[in-house]
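To make this tangible, we now present a fold written out as tokens:
***
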Amino acid sequence: MSDNSGSQEKFFKIALMPSGRKGQVAAGTDLLRAARELGVELESICGGRQTCGKCQVILEEGKFPKHGLTSQKGNLSPPSDLEIEYDRDHPLNGRRLACAAHVLGDILITVPEESQAHKQVIAKAATERIIDVSPAVRLLYVEIEPAELGDPRGDWDRLAQALQDQWELTGLEIDPKLLPTLQSIIREGDFAVTATIWQDKEVIRLQPGYQEGIYGLAIDVGSTTVVAHLCDLRTGEVKSTKSAMNPQVRFGEDLMSRISYSNSEPQGLKRMNRSIIQTLNELAEKATAEVGLSPQEITDVVIVGNTVMHHILLGINPEQLGVAPFALATYSALDIKARDLNLQLHPGCRVHTLPLIAGHVGADNVGVMLAESPTDYEGISLVVDVGTNAEIILGDRDQVLVASSPTGPAFEGAQVTHGQRAAPGAIDRVRIDPQSFEPMIKVIGSPEWLTLSPDESVPPNVMPTGICGSGIIEAIAELYLAGIINTKGHFITSRADQSPRIVMKGRTAEYILVDQEFTATGSHIVITQNDVRAIQLAKAALYAGTKLLMDHRGVERVDRVILAGAFGNFISPFHAMVLGLIPDCDLDNVFAVGNAAGDGARLALVNRGLRLKAVQLARSANYVETPLESTFQDEFVAALNLPHSTHPYPHLAGRLPEAVDERPRKRKSRLRAGTH
């Protein structure tokens, strides 16, 4: 205990764990206010009225020499009647409500993670990071003065005054859509409501009485696949993830064909816009239904996508992106009412689109930069978001270069004979024995390598239906390692005499990966010469873009490679390098991180400060328009070979024999081949 400069007011020591914040507070201060004075924000929807129970803390008892205090039960005021009532209905198990407990002596308090206003979530990246949960929308419980004769103020005016008095929010506006129901909601709650506030600027939702639950949606609109993450905005937890094929694929598989469709068909833009909006509504419905919620409970959305997807989603004709200088309608971050986009969410819900960079480098690229933070790494990082339109980021703390490369949809399973998106039943891992040419496969949904034979039964849930992007990468790399195709990607037709799996088709051949008896479709799953060529063209476009960025930066090598995109969770770094998908790098520094663009959208959803960082990243990045570079075509042609015809791969050469020897052991001739 101490006096404050001769004042008669008493002050006591308080230490808050795990933050380590400590200081002195005036006697009688409640713990909610005391924590805030020391810079530790506690969760509190009710504003200290002892009703929400979010501000629970633990009083630690004993001597704590490090902090110079002795903490004991009597140093907090006893529970109030309201706190006792809350404990009876919702057992506190020895914890205290910070808003009800007043400081009467020196104390050490532990603040559980769930009671912290700025919770932390782990960002899964090549380097894991902890992100504070501080969303753009929050819930506030507020009690309003009842209407009385002689008080001319309207219900909104008294609500705004209560929010100012109880939560220190000034200058608030209200969504006009709320006004028709405002008075009935206030009276239903007996002049107490829970307000949903956007950016501390606008009331976007009102619920009668005390309410909990606030949810948002992070969406990655890819050219081929759309992914939506439903998140709890109080905790940052992902409650559900749903994905779907982008319905615009039927209007064109790549970006330029969709631009062409928009220009050539009078209703082209409207059709593509309606189709993606319908898909987003369906994903919201499925994601919320899975956890017993409704799309109407979604009050915030963050969307990323490439520039063409961005423009079509917003109803903007992308025609200028089809011709040089590839002008954008806007590259700024936007906040739009979901209802203005015909999204069937809460009427007051806002949609935030991350900023674009330039040309064909869009908000998905910015999302990747948010998620993977190349500017926080000392060495040269190469981040590749592999999809229909590959996004390439190269740089370090000093400078970041970005580019887009039109790889086409082959990496996502399209343009491949038996290609499909990554879903249960898709083959995602492949090994081929270099002596017998017999394969082993892994199927999404099964943890085991499959070595099928006529005397084995195959559970229906693991029978393959096709092959996804990571599977086709490994399959073609394994065909090369086994000597079935050569460096030019051509089948070595003489191998047909050595194995029934290699079947001649005119002047070329194809490889039977899975016999029809073991597929869910009843047909062989094969790798054809056209499949190999499609992957060669895609990887050559990607590598050529990467090489041009390296030339612009003046570097011959990269220190770290991060593989993202639709199949980034599963792709083998070794096989990516065998294929020549990426430049030479120490394989220990090659990471597969999955849907980094979607992760970036999720991070911007749960932390509004990262939206400002996204703008900084977008504006500081140096854009390179690779297809217009004079050397692009030369690099593209050189990159068609496996792995590459001009650039060395010392790390690959050093590990190739070991990697081949490390393939899983298998019984001989376990997967029987047939013929067409």
